[in-house]
Write a structure and sequence with these properties.
It is a single chain. The protein is mostly helical. The chain has one domain. 74% of the residues lie in helices and 0% in strands. The protein has helices at residues 2-19, 49-81, 84-111, 115-133, 135-139, 144-157, 159-164.
Amino acid sequence: MRRILAAATLAAFVLVGAACTANGTVTTSPSSGAPATSATTVPSADPSAQAICTDLRTTVLDRDAKEFGTDLGNMIAARTKGDTAAANTAQQAATTKLHQISAKLRAHADEATNPDLKKALDDSATNLDKLASDTDNFSKVDSLPAVSQTTQKFVEALSEITKFCS
């Protein structure tokens, strides 16, 4: 059973972590193959963008994604044991985590001055809220393949902000 929990956590972490690996700097120089440095940051770029993207990587894509994966693993473990109460508790923890992440994204959207960053944060937050509300999806999380499907939905929900921060 511990293998399932570890695998579920790892699946969530790997899928989400792979989606956002860059430094968060917005570049506008398509002709240059080299990554932008702070000296070449576009003056009109949101000065908080790098800090927001860094925070998202360290909290959402690391700690929060692992916690969400653990909640999914706990849900599978409880369902395997036939423990409906524990499965419901784990499902509630997973949906609560998604709403917490969504709230973080919206808080960052309030801080951002770049309209594209604001939109990416708001869109990703809305997508996470939709995933949290998809009770049919969570009722089907009873195996490792189902966890993979749900973590893929998590990655897709965050796609707008990961595009911006990569």
